[in-house]
UniProtKB/TrEMBL annotation:
<dbReference type="GO" id="GO:0005829">
    <property type="term" value="C:cytosol"/>
</dbReference>
<dbReference type="InterPro" id="IPR008278">
    <property type="entry name" value="4-PPantetheinyl_Trfase_dom"/>
</dbReference>
<dbReference type="InterPro" id="IPR050559">
    <property type="entry name" value="P-Pant_transferase_sf"/>
</dbReference>
<dbReference type="GO" id="GO:0000287">
    <property type="term" value="F:magnesium ion binding"/>
</dbReference>
<protein>
    <recommendedName>
        <fullName>4'-phosphopantetheinyl transferase domain-containing protein</fullName>
    </recommendedName>
</protein>
<dbReference type="GO" id="GO:0019878">
    <property type="term" value="P:lysine biosynthetic process via aminoadipic acid"/>
</dbReference>
<dbReference type="InterPro" id="IPR037143">
    <property type="entry name" value="4-PPantetheinyl_Trfase_dom_sf"/>
</dbReference>
<keyword id="KW-0808">Transferase</keyword>
<comment type="similarity">
    <text>Belongs to the P-Pant transferase superfamily. Gsp/Sfp/HetI/AcpT family.</text>
</comment>
<dbReference type="Pfam" id="PF01648">
    <property type="entry name" value="ACPS"/>
</dbReference>
<feature type="domain" description="4'-phosphopantetheinyl transferase">
    <location>
        <begin position="118"/>
        <end position="188"/>
    </location>
</feature>
<dbReference type="GO" id="GO:0008897">
    <property type="term" value="F:holo-[acyl-carrier-protein] synthase activity"/>
</dbReference>
Length: 209
């Protein structure tokens, strides 16, 4: 599935079941970083009988396969990581239309965003959103807006997911992830650039610099 925001930003969405039974075929095309994550998590999942961990392992493998498929990245030397661990395309492997990328996954979905400028993406399941957790990163105006929705209704959960995915996408754009915090000025500067998409029971947020 391809979601094109504009000529400078494309979003690719795939499901983990697309690689079911194909893991051995895919691994040679994936950088060691993602293969190692897949192997470690998969082995732990099998050992503990955890379907959740096995699903997470497939998310990591599919993420690595997608950056090979759409960016031609198949080795660790083509990637660098900033001080917070955010992966970026190494200098010399960038091109004007695909200089930056970001990944997110939740449930069966893995989302890859490719852009000519720094970009952040997040995806969350609306039914798993916790108001108690999300309200920690919400400003008063956002909390006030939620009062207009029936508590725990579908509309309430979707709105909550939008606030959360927006926040995380912006954190990933600026490169800190959850190792940092965003002040109101930074949030307000980027909020107007966030684009949302609802997909089944999921919300996706994408923001570019």
């Amino acid at each position: 599935m391809v979601w094109k925001i504009n000529n400078n930003c494309q979003i690719f969405i795939e499901k983990t079941d697309s690689i079911a039974g194909r893991q051995k075929e895919i691994i040679p095309h994936v950088s060691a970083y993602y293969v190692d994550k897949y192997t470690t998590i998969s082995e732990k999942g099998v050992k503990t009988g955890s379907n959740r961990l096995c699903g997470t392992a497939n998310q990591e493998l599919l993420a690595g396969y997608m950056i090979f498929k759409y960016l031609g990245i198949s080795s660790d030397e083509q990637l660098v990581r900033n001080e917070h661990g955010k992966p970026e395309i190494a200098a010399g492997y960038k091109n004007e239309s695909a200089a930056f990328f970001n990944l997110a996954h939740s449930g069966p979905y893995v989302v890859l965003v490719i852009s000519d400028r720094p970009v952040g993406v997040d995806i969350e399941h609306t039914k798993r959103m916790s108001y108690k957790v999300a309200k920690r990163i919400m400003r008063k105006a956002q909390l006030d807006r939620l009062e207009g929705f029936e508590n725990e209704s579908d509309a309430f959960q979707i709105e909550l997911a939008k606030y959360w995915t927006q926040y995380e996408a912006i954190m990933k754009l600026v490169g800190t992830g959850f190792s940092g915090e965003l002040d109101d000025r930074t949030m307000e500067a980027y909020e107007k650039r966030v684009v949302f998409r609802e997909l089944e029971d999921y919300v996706i947020a994408v923001v570019t610099k």
